[in-house]
Amino acid sequence: LAFLGDTGTGGENQERVARGMARRCQSEADCRFIALLGDNIYPSGVKSADDKQFITKFEEPYKHLDFRFYAVLGNHDHYGKIDAQIDYSKRSTKWVMPERFYRFTVGEAEFFAIDSDDFDPPQSKWLDERLQASKARWKIVLGHRPIYSYGWHGDDPDLIEDLEPLLVKHKVNFYLCGHEHEQQVLQLKGYYEV
């Protein structure tokens, strides 16, 4: 399994990463899915489920990877039509985004895919209830924007206020996100230890 953010350029770097993932997955039996952590289609999302960018910036680069890609929305995806990314799930055998926020289970892990660019009260209530009901050994939330960051975008005050308390309350093991175009591993003070 792999977690990728900010990928949808259709350029050489995306192709190179896709080839590397294909090589690794041929040699390992545990490649079951990929999570796309937002900004799936640069620079301005898509206009419809028929948008050719789904081919040039998703299907073609990942043609050698034969498993599901669970996608969340990023800020660049919000510039287009969000429903188009949801509707594309009905056409593609790989692309999975049944709703703006949703959950899925793989093995002992339950994943909660959220729209961190519009983390509104209905979504917060949904996440709170689903995390409360989860019996999974591993609870992992997938979003696009980081709560805290040493990168260029910095901390997100809205997510600090609205999302972080839910992660702590329900002892979420990981919050995985993109947006900064770099790798950071942060542990919150007083946060649940793995």
Explain what the structure shows:
The protein is α/β, with parallel strands linked by helices and 194 residues long. 30% of the residues lie in helices and 17% in strands. The chain is built from 7 helices and 8 strands; from the N terminus they run E-H-E-H-E-H-H-E-E-E-H-E-H-H-E. The chain has helices at residues 12-27, 53-59, 75-78, 82-88, 121-133, 157-162, 164-169; strands at residues 2-4, 33-37, 68-72, 95-96, 102-106, 109-113, 138-142, 174-176. The strands form 2 sheets. A 4-stranded parallel sheet has the order 1-2-3-4, with no helix packed on it. A 4-stranded mixed sheet has the order 5-6-7-8, covered by helices on one side.
Set down the secondary structure blueprint.
Elements: E1 2-4, H1 12-27, E2 33-37, H2 53-59, E3 68-72, H3 75-78, H4 82-88, E4 95-96, E5 102-106, E6 109-113, H5 121-133, E7 138-142, H6 157-162, H7 164-169, E8 174-176
What's a quick, concise take on this entry?
The chain has 194 residues and is an alpha/beta fold. It is built from seven helices and eight strands.
Descriptive tags:
four-stranded parallel β-sheet; 7 helices; alpha/beta; 194 residues; globular
